[in-house]
Amino acid sequence: MSRQKSKAIKAPDWADLIQLEMKETQKLPQGNGWKTVQELKGEHGIGERKLYQLINTLIAAGECERFYGHTVNNAGARSSKVWYRLKKRSA
User: Fold this and answer.
1) Cα–Cα distance measured from residue 49 to residue 70, given in angstroms and rounded to the nearest whole number
2) pLDDT tens digits along 24-55
3) What are the residue ranges spanned by the domains of the chain?
4) Residue in 43, 68, 39, 40 with CA at minimum distance from that of residue 54
5) Does domain 33-91 have CATH number 1.10.510.10?
6) DSSP secondary-structure letter at 35?
């Protein structure tokens, strides 16, 4: 039996692969005005429970949009996030 020599394939740099994966795995909202609950809590000083009640009321009234997406955290893991923004009111 003869052994075949495997051809050496140059592997891309692992850091480049991680950067590429991070770009491909993020799903972010497009446009202005999107904020997460954590950002809204800090801006308005409202508790999380009351803030979610307010958001759900605004969504039910058609005054707020919700976007489900994800980012990559510092450890390189995908992290689900939800962003919200008020809909523009017509005059």
Assistant:
1) 22
2) 678 899 999 999 999 999 999 999 999 999 99
3) 33-91
4) 40
5) no
6) B
